[in-house]
């Protein structure tokens, strides 16, 4: 590995200076917003959405710092990447606190949580979800294929899929999907994205179960995401898609039952 010169180090520090300054400013802003949000005023849920958005900005600044490190001194800045990951987690958590982290649940179970954010329109909701998805993808790429955090992203992506689903107002979705609605495009694309994310989360949790942990909880979580996808198809009256997911659920559930029996038999033989 080539030795980093003093000139390279100075160039690196000069280039990251602005991003370091912006991260400090956002962290100060987060503290102030948290103080306000903890007062539990009617504005608190909207303040949490602002916090989620700012944490995504913070994550992007940390990734920029690591990118400059990679470009100038040919090394990833692991500390910056880890700070980016923590910021992403905070963004997801703030969103969960607003719309809930429920995976497979009827809309009526969390519908009331969306009332305080009615002024945050479908276009804004879709844009926030797209921004979060992009940040997750960028961070995963920044870490690389052989990262020790590979399986951690299964959880991040799963929690992201849940909030992406829970932030959409299913009660008004048909109205918003009318061709005359100003929210037509964002509603159509948001629903399309949710379906993709739920399916992906299910597959990723099963992959984690089979290739990494062998923990049945991971497989059960995958099944839960699959069930959430089927519930959404039913709500949208997409019967063919619902039947396809029903078949897949049956296969997965049978696979889990078989694996559990094998595990029990293995324990008895010990």
What would your notes on this structure say?
It contains nine helices and no strands. It is mostly helical and 270 residues long. It is globular. The mean pLDDT is 95.
Distinctive features:
9 helices, mainly alpha, 270 residues
Number of strands: 0
Rg over CA atoms: 21 Å
In terms of quaternary structure, the protein is single chain
Helix percent band:
over 70%
Q: Low-confidence segments, ≥5 residues, pLDDT <50? A: none
Return the string of H and E elements: HHHHHHHHH
Largest beta-sheet details: none
> Helix/strand/pairing class, anyone?
mainly alpha
Overall pLDDT confidence = 95
Strand content: under 5%
Topology:
Blueprint: H1 6-37, H2 44-72, H3 78-99, H4 122-143, H5 152-166, H6 173-176, H7 184-213, H8 216-235, H9 239-269
Helix pairs in contact: 1-2, 2-3, 2-4, 3-4, 3-5, 4-5, 4-7, 5-7, 7-8, 8-9
Please outline what is shown here:
The chain is an all-alpha fold and 270 residues long.
